[in-house]
Specification:
Elements lengths: L1 E3 L5 H17 L4 H13 L12 E3 L5 H41 L5 H23 L4 H70 L3 H55 L1
Helix pairs in contact: 1-2, 2-3, 3-4
C-alpha cells in the first residue's frame, strides 16, 4: 500500500481531486456527501482507501485549518465556484426585489427585508471565503507545469517501454539468426570434411599409397613362390608316377619270368 506524507503537496492535491471525481461520477454520490467526505479526508482522515479505490494512506493529516484550506482550494473553488457565484447573484436579486416591493408596498415587512440582507451577506461572506482560498495563477501554472511534466514523463516511460520491448524482440531475432548461422556453419564444416574425405579417397584410388604398393609386391612374391612350389609338387608327382610305372613293369616282368621258369620245369 502506498503512503504519502501529506495532502498539501502536488501528489496529495491530485489525489484528492481523483477521489472527488470517483465519488461524484463513478459512485454517483450526491454533491453534499462528496463535499463532506472530501472535507474529512483533507482534515483528519488517514486511510483514504476506506472511501476510494486508491490504496493510499496519509502519514500526517493536515488538521482543521490547513485541511479546510486545501478543501476550499481543490474542491469547492474548482467544482462549486460557479454554483456559489450563482447563489450570490440569486441573493442579490432577491434582496433587490424585496427592497423594491417594500418601497412601493406595505405587504413586505422589515423582517423579510432584513432576512434578505442577511442571506445576501452570508452569500457574499461565503463567496469571500471561496475566493480567498482560490489558488493563484502562479500556483495553477506550477501545477499545470507539473502535470504537463508528469504527463511527458509518463509518455516518455511508455515510449522507453515500447523501445525496450522492440529492442528485446530484435535481440531475440538476432539470437535466432545467430543460432541458425551456427547450424549452417556446422553443416558447412561437415560438408567440407565429407568432401575432403571423398577427395582423399579419389586420390588414393588414382595414385595408390606406398603401403598399398608394398603390400601388392609382397602378395605377388608370395604368389610366385606358391607357383614355384606347385611346379615342384607337380614334378614330384610325375617322378612318383614314373617310378610306380617302372615298379609295375619290373613286377610284371618278374611274374612272367617266374611263370616261364615253372613251365620249363
Amino acid at each position: 500500500m502506498k503512503q504519502i506524507d501529506t495532502l498539501s503537496g502536488y501528489e496529495g492535491r491530485e489525489l484528492i481531486n481523483k477521489i472527488f471525481k470517483e465519488l461524484r461520477y463513478e459512485k454517483q454520490v450526491s454533491g453534499l456527501s462528496a463535499l463532506i467526505t472530501c472535507w474529512k479526508l483533507c482534515t483528519n482522515e488517514r486511510e483514504l482507501f476506506r472511501y476510494s479505490k486508491e490504496e493510499v494512506t496519509i502519514a500526517h493529516p493536515l488538521g482543521l485549518l490547513s485541511g479546510t484550506a486545501i478543501w476550499l482550494e481543490e474542491i469547492v473553488n474548482r467544482y462549486y465556484y460557479s454554483t456559489m457565484n450563482s447563489f450570490v447573484y440569486f441573493g442579490a436579486a432577491v434582496l433587490l426585489v424585496l427592497i423594491g416591493v417594500r418601497r412601493f408596498s406595505q405587504n413586505v415587512s422589515d423582517d423579510i427585508v432584513i432576512f434578505g440582507i442577511v442571506f445576501e451577506a452570508m452569500m457574499l461572506l461565503m463567496m469571500f471565503s471561496v475566493m480567498l482560498f482560490s489558488p493563484n495563477e502562479a500556483q495553477e501554472e506550477t501545477q499545470d507545469e507539473e502535470s504537463a511534466t508528469q504527463e511527458s514523463l509518463n509518455e516518455l516511460i511508455i515510449e522507453v517501454g515500447e523501445v525496450s520491448r522492440d529492442f528485446a524482440a530484435i535481440t531475440v531475432q538476432f539470437e535466432q539468426i545467430t543460432d541458425t548461422m551456427k547450424e549452417v556453419m556446422n553443416q558447412q564444416r561437415e560438408l567440407i570434411n565429407n568432401v575432403s574425405d571423398l577427395a582423399r579417397a579419389n586420390a588414393l584410388a588414382v595414385a595408390p599409397s606406398p603401403e598399398l604398393i608394398t603390400t601388392m609386391k609382397q602378395t605377388n612374391e608370395t604368389l610366385r613362390q606358391f607357383g614355384d612350389t606347385m611346379d615342384k609338387l607337380n614334378s614330384g608327382i610325375e617322378q612318383i608316377k614314373i617310378e610306380e610305372i617302372d615298379f609295375a613293369v619290373k613286377k610284371e616282368l618278374s611274374n612272367m619270368l617266374n611263370s616261364k621258369m615253372k613251365n620249363a620245369d
